């Protein structure tokens, strides 16, 4: 589906009933990168809304330079177009940055935040290791999976990949968008994004989660993020990587549901 908003066309999907939950995807991904089993489990308790980032799928490019703040503005526009009011937001990786910016810039639209494998934007976060970033950018799907799942978790990586292949016409972000996304992520981590420098203003309760073996986002970043958002809870999953939310999805979804109430 495509919503026609004040910030351009936005591709989105909805599934489930209950309290609204907005899912925000990370670097390189599309709505098809949410594992079907993960989405189906969330949809048992929530009206799950997924959207594509700027320039991906049916979502228009933002006006001007792509930034995390600009992606948050598009998310806000979608919430308005769908008349969702206040929602809980789950953001993964770059999507977690967008979730933080949404809570800073549009606090009246956010009830609670679930921030998965992501970094604070105040300039204090540890950078993405170059070797892991190179794997994530590889054209080889097996190499990409090796950046998302730690050694010894091959079964979880294969299960995730198999799930994605269940989507007809599976797609990711086009190559033309990835450079702009990478720049936006770098600007956020370096503390150059206006909303990123204001994360201490976030009043929404936050659950910060990651895997202890995240090759892309050092686990210490979870604590740095929680330090910036007052009253945050931190949950780390042992022997899990950047895609911990799919590797340990049953346990993670249980924690999310308990947190969201």
Output the keywords.
Rossmann fold, 261 residues, alpha/beta, eight-stranded mixed sheet
Describe the structure.
- The structure is a single chain.
- This protein has helices at 36-42, 68-81, 94-105, 130-136, 141-148, 154-164, 175-189, 220-228, 244-247, 249-260, and strands spanning 2-5, 8-15, 19-24, 46-51, 87-92, 110-116, 206-211, 233-237.
- It has 261 residues and is an alpha/beta fold.
- It has one domain (2-260): Alpha/Beta hydrolase fold, catalytic domain (Rossmann fold, 3-Layer(aba) Sandwich), CATH 3.40.50.
- Strands 1-2-4-3-5-6-7-8 form an eight-stranded mixed β-sheet, with helices on both faces.
- Helix 2 packs across helix 3 (94-105).
- The longest helix has 15 residues, at 175-189.
- The protein is globular.
- The two termini are 28 Å apart.
């Amino acid at each position: 589906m495509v919503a026609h908003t004040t910030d351009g066309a936005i591709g989105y999907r909805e599934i489930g009933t209950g309290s609204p939950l907005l899912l925000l995807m990370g670097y390189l991904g599309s709505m098809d990168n949410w594992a079907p089993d993960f989405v189906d489990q969330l949809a048992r308790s929530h009206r799950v809304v997924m959207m594509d980032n700027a320039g991906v799928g049916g979502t228009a490019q933002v006006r001007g330079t792509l930034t995390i703040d600009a992606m948050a503005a598009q998310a806000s526009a979608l919430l308005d177009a769908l008349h969702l009011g206040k929602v809980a937001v789950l953001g993964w990786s770059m999507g977690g940055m967008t979730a933080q910016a949404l809570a800073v810039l549009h606090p009246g639209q956010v009830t609670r935040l679930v921030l998965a494998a992501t970094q604070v934007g105040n300039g204090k976060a540890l950078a993405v290791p170059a070797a892991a970033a190179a794997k994530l950018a590889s054209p080889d799907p097996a190499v990409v999976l090796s950046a998302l799942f730690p050694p010894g978790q091959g079964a979880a990586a294969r299960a995730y990949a198999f799930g994605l292949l269940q989507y007809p016409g599976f797609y990711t972000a086009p190559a033309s968008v990835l450079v702009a996304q990478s720049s936006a992520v770098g600007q956020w981590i370096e503390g150059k994004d206006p909303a990123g420098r204001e994360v201490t203003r976030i009043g929404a309760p936050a659950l910060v989660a990651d895997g202890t073996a995240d090759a892309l986002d050092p686990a210490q970043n979870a604590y740095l993020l929680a330090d910036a958002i007052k009253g945050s809870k931190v949950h780390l999953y042992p022997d899990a990587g950047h895609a911990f939310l799919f590797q340990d999805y049953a346990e993670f979804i249980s924690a999310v549901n308990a947190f969201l109430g």
